[in-house]
Amino acid sequence: MDRCRFALFLIFVASLACASDATASAHPIAQANDNRLAAGELKRGTLAVQLEMVETTWYPEQESGPSLSVYAFAEKGKPPQIPGPLVRIPQGTEVRVQIHNSLPVAMFIRGLDSHDDARPEPVLIAAGATADFHFTAQSPGTYYYSARSTKMSIHEIGLLSIIEDLPMGDAPFDIESELAGGFIVDRPGAAPDDRIFIITNWIAGVITPPFREEVVINGKAWPYTERLSYRTGDTARWRLLNASINDHAMHLHGFFFEVTSLGSQDRDHLYSPDQIPHVVTQHLDPGETTSMMWTPDRPGRWLLHCHMAAHMAKQEAWQPADSHPAHATEHNSDGMGGMVLGITVSGPSRSAAPASGAKARQLQLIVRENPATRFVARSYGLRDPGSRSKRKPRSSSVPGCAPGPDSRRAHRNHGRQSTEGTDRRSLAWHRTREL
Ligand SMILES: [Cu+2]
């Protein structure tokens, strides 16, 4: 590069930096929430939490990287968090949550309730208003609270048919997409020795192209997601909360895991010991939650990731192609992004050598079409005929599909076309991208 062109390049980079700083200074910067610390003050069986909904500048990748303006929850007097501040209490705790809406639009709040048998209605908080939530936590489980300007739940939005209009506009998919936080109710006396991972997905172009998305775990996309470390023989207990409008196929490399619960924003089903499914992939519908447990018995570097190709690929489209050139080059080197967690297991192997006379297990590969939604075209999965699980086989890998004005045609075409090419690419990707 000659001097003149190099000088112009520097001016271009400087102008991008100025634009980014101007955005950042307008709103508080969101912190990625690793969900290790519960919000509020728990005293004599009562939890008091004060929350606020604010506009924030969010860096889903590195802190100096590209940013998005989104709405987020903040604990009063603290920076906004993505996902929102964690509400975590033992069963039977009296909960008092106050939420102030500093946003310019009214918001429906869901999920801040007792989780008894009654199906609660969302609570509308007008712009500039404050609302109080007062209840006793009744049922242990893995839940979340959320806010949207539409009365529809995250689950309902995710299951919209491909022919449905979107009268709620773009906001619930992009600027409101990060308005969700964990709400965990522990059994009395249970030690919270688990980790909580919340999935959210910022999507632009749902109505007007171009389609862009940034899918994250605890507010960060790979390779900026948290790196986890275990010793062989440890027990890892994780809760996965899908507070996004998409399906996800959560796959663990190298190990089976036990699914100990499967639920939603309103209900949780805790499996009894004789029902617990042993799987390597757990499908989560939009808005679903799950708890899982596994024991690493071999050292190495492993992954938990969404098996849907679009959700573990580097998202290029959400930033202009010519911005942050160094950043783009750096991340393209591994080609992965989005919903990936890296896990390092150390210590001696405790894996038993495979028995030479072990009987081969026969698995069925199921390829079937589900009713298409606006966001998912089809699903397919593996089924073990000997499994005790009564749950029907769900997708283990679903190629992503971009919604938008052309989505009706796109989804239908995906439904009819052969899966062979896409599936082969997906499997090859999986093989070559292991750490
Ligand atoms: Cu996914």
SSE layout:
Blueprint: H1 3-26, E1 31-32, E2 41-43, E3 46-58, E4 68-75, E5 80-82, E6 84-90, E7 94-101, E8 107-110, E9 123-125, E10 130-136, E11 141-148, H2 154-158, E12 180-186, E13 195-204, E14 212-217, E15 227-231, E16 236-242, E17 248-252, E18 257-263, E19 268-270, E20 278-279, E21 281-284, E22 289-294, E23 300-306, H3 325-332, E24 340-346, E25 364-368, E26 379-383, H4 407-416, H5 420-432
Parallel strand pairs: 1-5, 3-7, 6-12, 13-16, 15-24
Antiparallel strand pairs: 2-3, 3-4, 4-5, 7-10, 8-9, 8-11, 11-12, 13-14, 16-22, 17-21, 17-23, 18-19, 18-20, 18-22, 23-24, 25-26
Bound molecules: copper (II) ion (CU).
Quick overview:
The protein is mostly beta strands and 435 residues long. The chain has helices spanning 3-26, 154-158, 325-332, 407-416, 420-432, and strands at 31-32, 41-43, 46-58, 68-75, 80-82, 84-90, 94-101, 107-110, 123-125, 130-136, 141-148, 180-186, 195-204, 212-217, 227-231, 236-242, 248-252, 257-263, 268-270, 278-279, 281-284, 289-294, 300-306, 340-346, 364-368, 379-383. The chain is globular and about 65 Å long.
What is the CATH topology?
Answer: Immunoglobulin-like
Beta content comes to 25-35%
Largest sheet: 7 strands, mixed
Distance between the termini: 36 Å
> By CATH's scheme, which homologous superfamily applies?
Cupredoxins -  blue copper proteins
Radius of gyration: 22 Å
Helical residue percent?
A: 10-25%
- Count of helix runs: 5
